[in-house]
Amino acid sequence: KNEVEQSPQNLTAQEGEFITINCSYSVGISALHWLQQHPGGGIVSLFMLSSGKKKHGRLIATINIQEKHSSLHITASHPRDSAVYICAVSRGWETSGSRLTFGEGTQLTVNP
Amino acid sequence: EAQVTQNPRYLITVTGKKLTVTCSQNMNHEYMSWYRQDPGLGLRQIYYSMNVEVTDKGDVPEGYKVSRKEKRNFPLILESPSPNQTSLYFCASSFRVFNSPLHFGNGTRLTVT
Asked: Chain A residues with CB inside 8 Å of B10's CB?
């Protein structure tokens, strides 16, 4: 079993729909990152979370440390949101270094 | 402009010919790291560095070397590349990975024949 699991692997939505991507992890973490990778390959950081909830525009990310689970929500989805969304967890602590483990990604396609 | 610069973007080489992929950041970040991305396996960490002269192995370090002599640079060295190192490579940096976002380079697509 992977230490970081994302669901779903693939998601197709109609423009305007509310989208949720889930990330579950099985290790202790110091932070969780949500990343976006566009078809050209570039990777952009969307959020870094260690607790609670963050919002940026139409994107919302939440994390439940006790349940080891995070969600990424996209409200009023748009075709330009089509990308691969990747969850990554930082497993280390400041005094002992840090390793990052990634989920396999969720391919999101938003149709007009 | 704050950025992570990776070079080259594309590289085709032959088995055994030493190569270096460069990574440089202009944000005074402490943390830098290298990843490879393969279909079906996702992103996997190769090496990371917490600061100058401090490096450590990630999940797939075999066949790779790194150095961090200056804060801004973190080159990835393949001393004797093999075909199984054909992959898409990313460098990333962060002020501190525990409480700061990651900034990625544009990637290097490496083919080893």
From this structure: none
Nearest CA in chain B to A84: B42
Q: Are A102 and A2 in contact (CB under 8 A)?
A: no
Hey, of B3, B35, B102, B109, which one would you mutate to test binding to chain A, going by the most A CBs within 10 A of its CB?
Answer: B102
Number of H helices, E strands in chain B: 0, 11
CA dihedral B82, B85, B90, B93 (to 10 degrees): -70
Maximum Cα–Cα distance for chain A, whole Å? 48
* Partner-chain contact B48 A101, CB within 8 Å: no
Q: Which pLDDT tens digit goes with each residue over B12-22?
A: 999 999 999 99
Q: Say yes or no for a CB contact (<8 Å) between B102 and A31.
A: no
Output the tens digit of pLDDT for each of chain A's 112 residues. Answer: 688 999 999 999 999 999 999 999 998 888 899 999 998 789 999 999 989 999 999 999 999 999 999 999 999 999 999 999 999 998 766 544 578 899 999 999 999 9
CB within 8 Å: B101 and A101: no
* Helix, strand, coil content of chain B in percent (nearest 5): 5, 50, 45
Name residue B35's amino acid: Y
- Lowest average pLDDT, out of A57-66, B46-55, B89-98, goes to B89-98
CA distance B46 to chain A (A): 10
